[in-house]
Amino acid sequence: MKKYLLVILFSFASAITLQAQKYALIDMEYVLKNIPAYERANEQLNQQSKRWQAEVDVLVQEAQELYKKYQSESMFLSDEQRLEREKQILDTEKSASELKRQYFGPSGELYKKRESLMAPIQDEIYNAVKDICDSKGYSMVIDRASAASIIYASPKIDISNDVLSKLGYSN
């Protein structure tokens, strides 16, 4: 019985403190779409990604061509020549795989480039949101774009346009 009473009291106390807090929403997709530097950085990343993917594709294509050539000539090759060709094919495939990992892996070049281009923009947005929260007394800001469980929210608590204004971009 004591446990139930404690749970009820704790729930009641939590509900009271939650009512005293102010919340705001931000639509990060909307904010980012209205920042030209973000669009330029995104375009730069896309172009670099395409260049790197083309390099990987060249190696993959080379491995496929080596394999086709190997299949057509395998009957005429000695065991030693077959092993040499197989090793060449495997080495080319391995090179393609390593290059792909180097460029597109979890800590690859694309990740590092994205981080270097996007971090300053994200920091600016964070500082603008923090300033708005401090001045208007918000306890928490929720990203409307990533919070799929929000069914409805009043437009009055959306600070996306305030953030854009704070950053110097008018909507």
Nutshell version of this structure?
By secondary structure, the protein is mainly alpha-helical. The chain is 73% helix and 5% strand.
Question: Notable features of this structure?
Answer:
two-stranded parallel sheet; 171 residues; mainly alpha; single chain; 6 helices; elongated
Poorly predicted runs are none
Give the percentage of residues in beta strands.
under 5%
Cα gyration radius (Å) = 28 Å
Instruction: Note the gap between the termini.
Output: 57 Å
Q: Average pLDDT, to the nearest integer?
A: 86
Structure description:
- The chain is mainly α and 171 residues long.
- The chain has one domain (17-167).
- It has helices spanning 2-19, 28-33, 36-73, 79-104, 109-136, 160-167, and strands at 23-26, 140-143.
- Helix 3 (36-73) runs antiparallel to helix 4 and helix 5 (109-136) crosses helix 6.
- The termini are far apart.
List the helices and strands and how they pair.
Blueprint: H1 2-19, E1 23-26, H2 28-33, H3 36-73, H4 79-104, H5 109-136, E2 140-143, H6 160-167
Parallel strand pairs: 1-2
